[in-house]
Amino acid sequence: MLNNIRADVFRWYGEYSWLLLVKAFLSQKGFRFVLLMRLAKHSRRIPGLNLLCIFLYKVAKIIYTSDVNYRASIGPGLRVHHVFGTTWGEHVTIGRNATIVHNVTIAGKDGAWPVIGDNVYLGTGCCILGGIRIGNNVVVGANAVVTKDVPDNAIVAGIPAKVVSEKGSADFIVNPWSD
């Protein structure tokens, strides 16, 4: 968990320190939400602390009108800019260095859930639906509706989403984390 938090701070500032962690918590609502989500997930084994972390996380969900399940599998370096309206379920898998903005929906269908690769940027209002795979280094454009697999290094847009470029996400992923 500490490695994930270090990576999350690094994504905001390009370096890590305890001071930057405090700064991010106080100034970045997306970071604050992600930190509370990670604490809710990883405090399961400590009974009293777990209840407190889950309570704080549920309060944050209400404040940010978000329905993100803290049990989802999220890699290090998650950068969420605007939490508002974002939703995903507990069976979603998101790789490392993901960037997510507001009103993003990641939803399952017929018991199958999306798997999102590394270095992926999810634009405002996009929907990723069903048991599909979003490759590595992908950009999903604003308001795109993705219902089919997306190959690595693709930029997709539209309803339904179609590949519009193979340039990838390098220009969209700020301060990528690497171990």
Polypeptide structure, described:
The chain is of the alpha/beta class and about 180 residues long. The chain has a single domain (about 1-165), classed as UDP N-Acetylglucosamine Acyltransferase, domain 1, CATH 2.160.10.10. The chain contains 4 helices and 15 strands. Strands 3-6-9-12-14-15 form a 6-stranded mixed beta sheet. Strands 1-4-7-10-13 form a 5-stranded parallel beta sheet, with no helix packed on it. The chain is globular. The two termini are about 15 Å apart. The mean pLDDT is about 95. Pfam families: Hexapep.
Q: Largest beta sheet: what is the strand line-up? A: 3-6-9-12-14-15
Count every helix, treating DSSP H or I runs of 4 or more residues as helices. 4
N-to-C SSE series?
HHHHEEEEEEEEEEEEEEE
Can you summarize the main beta sheet? 6 strands, mixed
Overall residue-averaged pLDDT value: 95
CATH architecture label name: 3 Solenoid
Helix proportion: 25-40%
Q: What is the CA-CA span between the terminal residues?
A: 14 Å
Classification by helices and strands: alpha/beta
Strand percent estimate: 15-25%
CATH class: Mainly Beta
CATH superfamily: Hexapeptide repeat proteins
> Which residue ranges are poorly predicted, with pLDDT under 50 across at least 5 consecutive positions?
none
- The tally of strands reads 15
Number of domains: 1
Question: What global shape is seen?
Answer: globular
CATH topology: UDP N-Acetylglucosamine Acyltransferase, domain 1
Q: What Rg, in angstroms, do the CA atoms define?
A: 16 Å
